[in-house]
Design a protein that fits this description.
Number of strands: 17
Helix content: under 10%
Strand order of the largest sheet: 2-5-8-11-14-17
Structural class: mainly beta
Shape: globular
Distance between the termini: 33 Å
Order of helices and strands: EEEEEEEEEEEEEEEEE
Strand content: 35-45%
Largest sheet: 6 strands, parallel
Radius of gyration: 14 Å
Length: about 170
């Protein structure tokens, strides 16, 4: 699905939602950000999954369950836990080779718990590049971040840096 409306936020609330295979705020090619389209995805509720590993080609383009998100995911304090973000491109184009649009924070987890970003398989890793900060956490508990490419292209070989850094946070994560 290509989703480009006149909103700047896509809110995923409720429980046990799965959002996969979308280009949010880009043209159908996944190479260009469309002006006036969703720039941020917000997760709330419980048991939601953004992306996944099904059909994701490792070290390649955004395919299968991968969501293409130019500017950021936010998991806020209204999240009731058990949120999973896997296999997405946040910042780079559909090929994972260049930055489409620079945002503020690739993934922001604020006062939330039981969050998984990435995973043990390479297909579960997110590519987070071209933001000011790659991942920012505040007031979190039971957050696991693993297997992601942060500040690189989708192959992990070439730099697509985040401006200030790849990681900022406090305790409560592993």
């Amino acid at each position: 699905n290509v989703i480009n409306a006149n909103s700047e936020v896509v809110v995923i609330g409720g429980n046990n939602n799965i959002v996969q295979g979308n280009f949010l705020g880009t043209d159908p090619t996944g190479m260009v950000v469309v002006s006036g389209t969703p720039a941020e995805v917000r997760l709330g509720g419980s048991g939601n999954r953004l992306g996944g590993t099904e059909g994701v080609l490792v070290n390649n383009a955004c395919t299968g369950a991968c969501n293409l998100i130019p500017v950021g995911i936010r998991i806020y304090d209204y999240s009731q836990g058990n949120q999973t973000v896997q296999g997405n491109f946040i910042g780079p184009n559909v090929l994972g080779t260049a930055i489409m649009q620079s945002g503020v924070v690739g993934i922001k987890i604020d006062t939330a718990s039981e969050v998984v970003i990435g995973g043990s398989s390479r297909a579960a890793g997110n590519t987070i590049s071209g933001q000011i900060i790659g991942i920012l956490m505040r007031g979190v508990t039971a957050v696991t971040i693993s297997g992601n490419y942060v500040g690189t292209d989708s192959s992990g070989r070439y730099a697509l840096p985040n401006n200030v850094g790849d990681w900022r946070g406090d305790s409560g994560s592993r």
